[in-house]
Amino acid sequence: MSEVRVCVIGAAGRMGRRLVALIMESEDLVLSGAVEAPGNPLLGADAGEVAGSGKAGVKLTDNVDEALATSDAVINFSIAGVVESTRKAVAKNCSVVIGTTALTDADKAELAQMAETGRIVFAPNYSVGVNLLFHLAGMVGKLLADYDCEIVEMHHNQKKDAPSGTAERLGEVVAAAREQAYKEVVRHGREGIVGARTASEIGMHSLRGGDVVGDHTVVFATGGERVELTHKASSRDTFAKGALRAVRFLQSAAPGKVYDMQDVLGLR
Questions:
Q1: Per-residue model confidence as pLDDT tens digits over 210-253
Q2: 175 CB contacts (<8 Å, ≥6 apart)?
Q3: In angstroms, how far is CA 47 from the centroid of its own chain?
Q4: What is the DSSP-derived secondary structure letter of residue 198?
Q5: Burial (CB count <10 Å: 0-12, 13-18, 19+), residue 55
């Protein structure tokens, strides 16, 4: 495989810095662009130096078009403007890997439309271990369909959304395995005299504290026993490496659908 020129959007963020560092270490990927939001105080700085990996020869810019002009692929872990930057990338025949979870149903519909001609991977979590957890949660959710299901996630104290996109995806997977509609059965926390737990609900609970990268547990409980599936991330590198794996996957993938990590890992 020839070298793939990769643009990172959100390059000065926690995940963006790790992506930049790992791309610089890679033998088959080259950092071609590093984008940040207008007004970011690091604009103009070398992206490699910001990532703590030495000079990359690529400066942080707020000009997406300029960064895409020399790129084959885009990795986007930013929050704002995901749909618009994806539209621009697809128009320039760049493959796109999206790690942003705060997208609306309308945003996802637009991504699906763009995927008819573009190559896109969109996943709530790029960890190989977490995606195996998705697979197992679906299997166990179906086998233990009459067990109570509760999902608990914990992240660092700076995380802005709750529950995490990964926890929501776990709930969706279990619900689908049980032929339920996730939004109809999910129950976010409990407080006060709420009555007995219903048999159909999926409990969802979010914890925040310290510098926890990401812990997720799916509990299946019944009289006399319980089964727990847990994944704990201790480094953001597990997510960054998965995103780079998705970039490589898209180099030979055909347009026509929005792929996810289940496709990348061959679990579907």
A1: 999 999 999 999 999 999 999 999 998 999 999 999 999 999 99
A2: 141, 181, 182, 185, 186, 202
A3: 22
A4: P
A5: exposed
Packing angle, helices 82-91 and 105-114, rounded to 10: 0
- Residue identified by tokens 């791309």 is 23
- CA-closest candidate to residue 136, choices 169, 159, 111: 169
Alpha carbons 201 and 38: distance in angstroms, whole number: 43
Coil, helix or strand for 136?
Answer: helix
Q: What is the DSSP string of 165-212?
A: HHHHHHHHHHHHHTT--HHHHEEE---SS--SPPSS-EEEEEEE-TT-
Quote helix, strand, coil % in the chain, to nearest 5: 35, 25, 40
Question: What are the residue numbers of the active site?
Answer: 155, 159
Q: What pLDDT was estimated at residue 1?
A: 55
pTM above 0.90, yes or no: no
Q: Which residues of the chain have pLDDT under 50?
A: none
Take residue 5 and report the two structure tokens written for it.
């020129």
Give the DSSP H or E segment for 149: strand 148-155
Interatomic CA distance for residues 78 and 175, integer angstroms: 29
Backbone angles phi, psi at 265, to 5 degrees: -90, 0
- In the Cβ-directed half-sphere of 94, how many Cα atoms lie within 13 Å? 29
